[in-house]
Amino acid sequence: MKSGKPVIQTEAVDSQAGKILLVIGDAAEITDTLYPWMRIQEAGYQVVVAAPDVRTYSLVQHQRPPGWDITRETAGYEIESDIAFKDIKPEEYAGLLVSGGRAPEYIRYDEDLLRTVRWMTEAGRPIGSVCHGIEVLAMAGVIKGKRITTVPKCQFDAEVCGATYVDAPVVVDGRIVTARGALDGWQWMREFLKLLEAV
Question: Beta strand 28-29 with 56-63: parallel, antiparallel or unpaired?
Fold first, then answer.
């Protein structure tokens, strides 16, 4: 552990409820990542952390200090991924979550990830995104005609790809559930779990 930061060790645990993909990359937001990682396991599912490669990734904290118009980014925990995007077999998963932070800005160009998102959408599996995670869903072309929410600065990304932006903590449209940001995580997971249980 070169950085001296704690590395969150992910561990494959068999689950009768099924497996959920949690999509990250470097600079994924801490709360957007760790809250669903913990909450989904608490509900009895196995969480498989997916990223561009199998390695350790750096998470970041986003906060908007008083008087700032934008968020300030600081380094946070590190987390290990379990599977590379290219190795995902989407049929093995009950659902997919895309974390927020800056990671979606670059992982949205990964064709293997986009293939997985499209497959899961067509198969009717629950999909969730929070904050900048909408950039992955937008690039995959799965939000056209959908009502979504996201952090306000990503409103354009959603609308230019054919979605209708709603300024609400959480929006559910069909099998897609979106959330604005980290503080809306508990509502996001509540609705995502409802979709999983309805399968």
Answer: parallel
**Alpha-carbon gap, residue 13 to 25, rounded angstroms:** 22
Show Cβ contacts of residue 66 under 8 Å, excluding neighbours closer than 6 positions: none
Return the amino acid letter for 88. I
Domains in the chain, ordered, with CATH? 7-197 (3.40.50.880)
Band of the pLDDT at 1, cuts 50, 70, 90?
very low
Q: Do 117 and 140 touch, CB atoms closer than 8 A?
A: yes
User: Dihedral sign, CA of 107, 136, 191, 19?
Assistant: negative
Give the three-class secondary structure for 86. Answer: helix
The secondary structure of 108-148 as a DSSP string is TT-HHHHHHHHHHHHTT--EEEEGGGHHHHHHHT--TT-EE
Burial state string for 140-163 with b = 16 or more CB within 10 A and e = fewer than 16? bebbeebbbbbbeebbebbeebeb
Is residue 62 part of the annotated active site? The answer reads: no
Q: Of 19, 62, 108, 132, which residue is the catalytic one?
A: 132
**Which of 62-66, 123-127, 166-170 is predicted with the least confidence, judged by mean pLDDT?**
62-66
The mean pLDDT of 83-89, rounded to a whole number, is 98
d(CA 73, CA 71): 6
Q: Is 60 helix (H, G, I), strand (E, B) or coil?
A: strand
